[in-house]
Write a structure and sequence with these properties.
The protein has 3 helices and 5 strands; from the N terminus they run βααββββα. The chain starts with a strand and ends with a helix.
């Protein structure tokens, strides 16, 4: 099993007045990691329509906030795949703080659905993308 890793620093705009990372920033970082994972397997969100006539949409997201992250912390988002179905898959994303011995900051599960770009209805995940997904199954 492979996992995709993305390093992210916490900047001033990611925090509150006390220097603690906002809860919504976890979701921003998860989206960034999913986008970079897609890019690393050879695709871009902006090209999915022209390549496959589809887009991915978030169907469900669960997040557990485990510990804080602070201004200037270096974080690492690790992404794997929990499950693949015909038109959807579930990603497991864990955010760690490298400044604090890889302490877990948040643990997320995100279900994404492959939908036809024209009518926004579920469609089968294209074979090329499915093959890439399978490499990251936990």
């Amino acid at each position: 099993m492979k996992s995709h890793k993305l390093n992210i620093r916490v900047y001033y705009g990611d925090t509150d007045a006390g220097g603690v990372m906002y809860h919504g920033t976890h979701l921003d970082f998860a989206e960034r990691a999913r986008t970079e994972w897609l890019r690393d397997i050879g695709h871009q969100n902006s090209d999915l329509r022209s390549e496959f006539g589809m887009i991915f949409v978030v169907k469900h997201l669960d997040i557990e906030y485990v510990g804080p992250a602070f201004l200037d912390d270096m974080l690492r988002m690790e992404t794997t795949i929990l499950e693949i179905k015909n038109s959807s898959f579930t990603m497991h994303q864990r955010l760690y703080c490298e400044n604090r011995d890889d302490a877990l900051v948040s643990d997320m599960r995100c279900a994404l659905v492959c939908v036809d770009e024209k009518n926004i209805r579920p469609m089968r995940i294209p074979a090329e993308l499915r093959k890439a997904l399978e490499d990251f199954v936990e």
